[in-house]
Amino acid sequence: MKKLVLFVVLCLAVCTESLQAAAVFGIDLHWPATFLSFDTSAPGTPTIVNPSFSPATVYAMDFDPLGTTLYGIDSNAKMLGTIDTATGVFSPQATVTNIGDPTITGLKIDPTTGVFYVSTGSRLFSLDPASGAATLLGAHGPSTLIIDLAISAGGDMYATDIATDSLYSVDKTNGAISLIGSIGLDLNFAQGMDFDYSTGVLYAALYRPGQNSDFATLDLSTGAATIIGSLNGRELEFAITNSANPVVPAPGAIVLGMMGAGLVGWLRRRHSI
Predict the structure, then answer these.
(1) I want to staple 138 with a disulfide (CB 3.0 to 4.6 A). Which of 16, 79, 174, 193 is the partner?
(2) Domains of the chain (ranges plus CATH)?
(3) Separation CA 57–CA 78 (nearest Å)
(4) How would you class 204 by CB atoms within 10 Å of its CB: exposed for 0-12, middle for 13-18, buried for 19 or more?
(5) Strand (E) positions, 40-145?
(6) pTM of this structure
């Protein structure tokens, strides 16, 4: 019985670790742009996938709801494309229209509906990925500079604003934002943000003047940032792979299920003796 308890404890430890760790793919926008990956628990030790990523102006990215295809938007050329996570090669797919001149700052795909959403500093759009046609949903509000979006497993949208250095909730129907609270840092230039659906944690890459940058979590109740580790000056746009597939169980959940089935079988055999 003691061996069984030890086995259960060890499995729970392994499962907990697998649930806490998620793979991040991102672009360091400093010239030359670099496509890289790292674990959410170890942002300071990335794997460089493509040291010369092009185009260098992909300021918005997200995985599809299956977690298999990474989309990005070249904000200068207004071009939607896919990014090969193994090679870091960008493949153009459709020209984004009806946006106008403003820079595209965010792209997120709603896991509950599959709808593509695009933000500029002051407006929210839906996007047809096949044609590239954008449809204006509404303005975020006065004096805003929305720099990135995130959508939770339940379909709730959030945004970071570098004019106020704050986290907001966003109404997906009209783009209106509601203040959650200050992030607590002086943000500037590009930022990154995405959910890990297996844990419900909102992660952010926070870049500040003087090439100071950190990987952090954001509190959904207060907006406050909790720093995990330094990004070593990287100005990072990123997406998390398992945040794109909340339906599929995490590896730890599968192990727990197998362990539970084995435990039930053991107990039945034990009581039948």
Answers:
(1) 174
(2) 2-272 (2.115.10.10)
(3) 10
(4) buried
(5) 47-50, 58-63, 70-74, 79-83, 90-95, 106-109, 116-119, 123-127, 134-139
(6) 0.81
